[in-house]
Amino acid sequence: MVTRPNIDEITIMGQKEIYAKTVVIPASSVGVLHLVAMALVLRGSAITITGVLLDKTTKSFLDILIRMGGRIRLSVQSSHLYKIDVEFSNMLGIEIQSQEIQLIFSYLPLICVVSVFAAGVTKFFGLSKLCESKRKILNALLIALDKFGIISKVTADHLEIHGRRDTLSEGCIIEVREEHKSVIPFLILGIASREEVFIKGMIDEEARNFLEIISKLAAKDNVCIDVV
């Protein structure tokens, strides 16, 4: 605290003594949701993720996946952290409205990937409200999905992805560019494909960490991952 009894004098009052304390910093929710999406579409998978900070965006993303039929269970670990249990699910196409898109746009590529494995058509509304940079990300993703033989229809305000519940049978070459922002949605598609998929470019630390965790999934029937 600083006091100024007169213009020529400043008094600074000392603060309370600061003590060391353990502070838990949750991991990025982006990495958590990559794993959730992977488990939902990888047949036979079941994982538990602990130490998850459930902010508004993450909760909105999970709510959409649950509406699609995702077998996702949330349980409280502490005042702010949650445990997520997720397993392979028979996903269904749904309608996702404009206000939801605005909340979860950074995760929209993941929702699109999950939609590929959903029975029926997943419809996205309100795309006209996306800025130009976000439209570029979406368009780049749809071009890549086309290489997997995925049918999509897009207008200025509306997107449809025609899902297929079975495993992808097409292989292809995907060249990841800057506008894709993340290679992980393509890694998920590649892992789920019966044929070889070659992914070129942007294999960053985030992608390497994801692949390391996926290797554990391949080795065990059930995996518990602590993200704190």
Description:
This protein has a single domain, classed as Enolpyruvate transferase domain (UDP-n-acetylglucosamine1-carboxyvinyl-transferase, Chain, Alpha-beta prism), CATH 3.65.10.10. The protein has 7 helices and 12 strands. The chain has helices spanning 29-41, 56-67, 98-104, 108-116, 132-147, 184-192, 205-219, and strands spanning 2-6, 9-12, 46-53, 71-76, 81-87, 95-96, 121-125, 151-154, 158-162, 172-175, 197-200, 223-226. It has a 4-stranded mixed sheet with strand order 4-5-3-12, covered by helices on one side. A hairpin with a 3-residue loop joins strand 8 (151-154) and strand 9. It is globular. The two termini are 35 Å apart. Residues 8-201 form the Enolpyruvate transferase domain. InterPro entries: Enolpyruvate_Tfrase_dom, Enolpyruvate_Tfrase_sf, RNA3'P_cycl/enolpyr_Trfase_a/b. The chain crosses the membrane at residues 23-42, 104-126.
